[in-house]
Amino acid sequence: MGLLEDCQDLFGSSDLYEVLGVPRSSSEAEVRRGYYKTSLQVHPDRVPQDPHSTSKFQTLGKVYAVLSVAEQRAVYDEHGIVDEESDTVKEGRDWDEYWRLLFPIVTLQDIVNFEQTYNGSDEEQQDLLRLYRDCSGDMDQILDSALCCGPDDEPRVRRILQAAIDGGDLPALRAFTHKNCRKKAARKRKVSSVINNQYTNLIRPIRNLSVRRKRAASREAGFSSLISSMEEKYCNNKPAKKKKK
């Protein structure tokens, strides 16, 4: 299949701009950002449970490769076709390496900065509204697909979506409005699991290190006490006086 057919099959649309979630009037920087955001959602390392994640990620790389070249973008915009024989979309290219070249190693501070500007922004709200429609109101799917969101973000996400429903921007879908106690309990267990994992990975090693240090200090103190007693017994005793005949 060609690129447009792959997009239709994997993303439900053959429109390259829709696949990246950006309008046709987007600037080069906006197209790049759309590619970055969408690729984060489908990257095989992020969604290993999706059997199509690798194909989606590779297809996204081809989409961006087309729209990032002015001549090819102009041809697509005017005629709606893609040159399948060009080096841009050729098979066998390492799209993961291509992604890493476009977006250098992201530091923890970069992620924190992005979350601080993204969470609560109009951009996040629009993304959540789109996910609500795409996921038919299913909170599990919404939380799994949303950027910078985890199970503990459910109350905040639900407030945003409920406000949009109350304001008439979204339809009230049963999957969202109907309280499924079983699913809600499962999400709570997921939050507890995340917290437990954080404890296991962060707190417990620190506590164990503290315990080991205390034990080492205790052993050192015991050893020092033993040495002191031996010195007192064998080194510090005055020689016994000889008895006079």
TrEMBL record:
SMART domains: DnaJ. One of its GO terms (molecular function) is heat shock protein binding. It comes from the Eukaryota. The keyword Cell division does not apply. Pfam families: DnaJ, HTH_DNAJC9. InterPro entries: DnaJ_domain, HTH_DNAJC9, J_dom_sf, J_domain-containing_protein. Keywords: Phosphoprotein. Residues 15-80 form the J domain. Transmembrane segments: none annotated. GO terms for cellular component: cytoplasm; nucleus. The keyword Aminoacyl-tRNA synthetase does not apply. Acts as a dual histone chaperone and heat shock co-chaperone. As a histone chaperone, forms a co-chaperone complex with MCM2 and histone H3-H4 heterodimers; and may thereby assist MCM2 in histone H3-H4 heterodimer recognition and facilitate the assembly of histones into nucleosomes. May also act as a histone co-chaperone together with TONSL. May recruit histone chaperones ASF1A, NASP and SPT2 to histone H3-H4 heterodimers. Also plays a role as co-chaperone of the HSP70 family of molecular chaperone proteins, such as HSPA1A, HSPA1B and HSPA8. This is DnaJ homolog subfamily C member 9.
